[in-house]
Amino acid sequence: MSTAADNRGAPVYFSAPGVICGAGDGCEELWHACTAGSQAGIKKVKSLSGKEFYVGRITDEKLTKTNARFDMRLIRIADAALNQLNDGIADAISKYGKKRVAVCVGSCDNGTELSLQAHKEYFSTGKFPAGYSLEMQGADYPATYVSEKYGVTGPSLAFSTACSSSAGAIIKAAELIRGGFADAVIAGGVDVISDTVLLGFDSLEAVSSGITNPFSVNRHGITLGEGAAFFVMTKNAPADGAAVRLLGYGETADAYHMTSPDPEGTCAAEAMREALARAGLSAQDIDYVNLHGTGTKFNDSMEAKAVNNVFS
Known about the structure:
Blueprint lengths: L3 H4 L5 E2 L3 E4 L2 E2 L1 H10 L5 E5 L5 E5 L16 H10 L3 H11 L4 E6 L5 H14 L15 H10 L5 E4 L5 H14 L5 E8 L3 H9 L20 E2 L1 E8 L9 E2 L20 H14 L17 H15 L1
Parallel strand pairs: 5-9, 6-7, 6-8
Antiparallel strand pairs: 1-10, 1-11, 2-3, 2-10, 4-5, 8-10
Helix pairs in contact: 9-10
């Protein structure tokens, strides 16, 4: 086995993704929705409190029952994206063996769609509903499910760092491959819209009363959504010719505030510079930047400053 030092600059490749969200089921649907500027996947829903919110929601017809130990909406969303990768995952297992295929999943809200109702019943009767378990809300369960679904026994890691969770999962997947701990990684993330999530963000006064309008002077907050996206990341280029490489990445933590970013975006800019340095690229080499764009007052201001700092 090669050492981590030997593999530090080794290439890491992405498969085509498996993806589902309110805007589309699969890459083609999502691409058409994005290029058309479609907002058809954004629906108004009523929460347990009676308050209504706009959310990016997947239609129930696209989600089917799974064989998971805890078959819940979040797992069904993950499953819909993962099933698009079944052939690629099978090829990785055949090529490298189950012990050499790892799992890295970012998720923050697993089981939250059941939490409020379950605790409401507990406080009323002293018992949780039949079939409810706190394990389904454990941070590890989405990653555990992926490992169980495919029977892979490589490292199975969960990441729960809010909006950076899936990015962290992809970075760690690359490090596992380059460090010699895995030859392929099923990597990505999944999250669900639930009353717990909606009311939690609403308590922070972060949710827009209308559909979000990022980077606008008229912005009023975020529109939350649910979805999943996964890749098979490998040390060898995919056989189908879709050889997309992860060239660089950067991670920082400004520790400025529990829920509010540093207004100057200093660490966000530092993370982008770190990614460029790892990739051996300059800011002038970049044609497209995918912004966070939450539509909140503080994030958009900070992010605009960080991007301007790096790319202007």
